[in-house]
Amino acid sequence: MIPRQMTRTELDTALDWAAAEGWNPGLDDAEAFWQADPQGFFAMEDQGQMVAAICVVNHDQAMAFLGLYICERSYRGRGFGHALWQHALGHAGSRSVALDGVPAQQQNYARSGFAPAGRTVRLAGPLPAGEATGISPARLEDRATLSALEAKACGYFKTAFDQQWFSDTHSRHTLVHHDGGVIDGLVTLRACRDGFKVGPLVAPSTEVARALLAACAEQSGGAQVMIDVPDDARDLAALCADLGLRQVFSTTRMYRGAAPLTGSGLHAVATLELG
């Protein structure tokens, strides 16, 4: 079996596999993922069928992100996934590569040169009602501003991904906070196979983050909401705890190569699959 590029239709299959593993992808994730870097999705094939999947998406000239690493159950433990992993990493070239790894796989990732840089904690629960003061829907013409805000928070640009992610669909919506007519905070809420996920969230203060999450509460209607918070965003984690969200699992952010310089303020991860 030889690794090859994935087709767009196979990405839908990979996300179905992810759902079966409990990763709970969003209902409209596939197209935004694909448009981030259509050349960055890879598959291992056996007798005309995809048996393993992975993505290494090149976000900018310095940073790539690895995710959606999954092998069909009957093919696990036979070396097919590792061969695909090695092939896909070549797509990053000289870029640093990031991933969010579960504890059981971190030693395997370390053998490929990935070093831990901190935890990401998933907090979950229904969001309580609150005052969504200063919040309005994002406009298409805001996307460059939103991309720059998130790049300042996470340390690198995801321009192609953001162009799709910050464009509303029937199940994904981005909201912004204005201060004196200037956007200083944002949040994206997307419906998933089960409940909703928040991400990214960028806010200059706890008060702005609280307003953004109150707006998410209005849209999620009491359903389960999940948010992935880096461990250096302690004020956001404390706010989520105050709102009644509880930890359900964690991953470790790991880098092969130099880690980016993240910004101050409150920040939640857009997606564990693409950063």
Automatic annotation (TrEMBL):
Q: Which Gene3D superfamilies match?
A: 3.40.630.30, 3.40.630.90
Which keywords appear in this protein's UniProt record, sorted alphabetically?
Answer: Transferase
Q: Which domain of life is it from?
A: Bacteria
Show the GO MF annotations. acyltransferase activity, transferring groups other than amino-acyl groups
Q: Sorted alphabetically, which InterPro entries does this protein's record hold?
A: Acyl/Acetyltrans_Enzymes (IPR052729), Acyl_CoA_acyltransferase (IPR016181), GNAT_dom (IPR000182), YitH/HolE_GNAT (IPR041496)
Cell wall biogenesis/degradation among keywords: no
What range(s) does the N-acetyltransferase domain occupy?
1-142
Which PANTHER family does the protein's record reference? SLL0310 PROTEIN (PTHR47237:SF1)
| Name of this protein | Acetyltransferase (GNAT) domain-containing protein
Q: What is the lineage of its organism?
A: Bacteria, Pseudomonadati, Pseudomonadota, Alphaproteobacteria, Rhodobacterales
